[in-house]
Amino acid sequence: xxxxxxxxxxxxxxxxxxxxxxxxxxxxxxxxxxxxxxxxxxxxxxxxxxxxxxxxxxxxxxxxxxxxxxxxxxxxxxxxxxxxxxxxxxxxxxxxxxxxxxxxxxxxxxxxxxxxxxxxxxxxxxxxxxxxxxxxxxxxxxxxxxxxxxxxxxxxxxxxxxxxxxxxxxxxxxxxxxxxxxxxxxxxxxxxxxxxxxxxxxxxxxxxxxxxxxxxxxxxxxxxxxxxxxxxxxxxxxxxxxxxx
Length: 245
Fold this sequence. Notes:
The protein is of the alpha/beta class. The chain contains eight helices and six strands. Strand 5 (176-182), helix 6 (189-193) and strand 6 (203-208) form a beta-alpha-beta unit. The longest helix has 19 residues, at 145-163. It starts with a strand and ends in a 10-residue tail after the last helix. 37% of the residues are buried.
């Protein structure tokens, strides 16, 4: 069994990172799940949210540094992947120990980001249409006005964060990049493959059936693959997925 590893999970746009909580009972005991909530949502709902990408990633970097494990990785889906990348570069700039890997899901590589797209999604109906297209929000939320208002408020802030991202070519990080994508997602192979340009170590790209939130419909096979990639990063050698049982 690999040595203990802390997996920091970052939220996707419009959602709380608590969406990953159920993984705690599904992942092996050597993986310690740690949720990174953003200001203004979830357990930090009373805090003032940050709407700028650089400011938010700098703040999250400060939080991670305050209790940095010996062995850790970042997992981020969609916006969370971009945040994980920013935090890792913040740690790199401060010459601090880096994660063994960035695990990026459903997020275009930094050089493939379309930041201008978020400024085009204006107004309640446009936001709702975008949520429906991503197919990650339960139907009961759309039918509950108060819940819908909360989701749209968070989504507006998150789209401001994503829209403020500006690509700058940065040094490749000395770590591994493990990327995951849905075969029916609009974020296609070229947009995911360019993550290989951001790091100097192992790059992998795993595909799953489904769209942007593929891991909800094929959770078991996704988590098996996630564990396999984490174990390979910790052990620095191939790992058989069946040995996670």
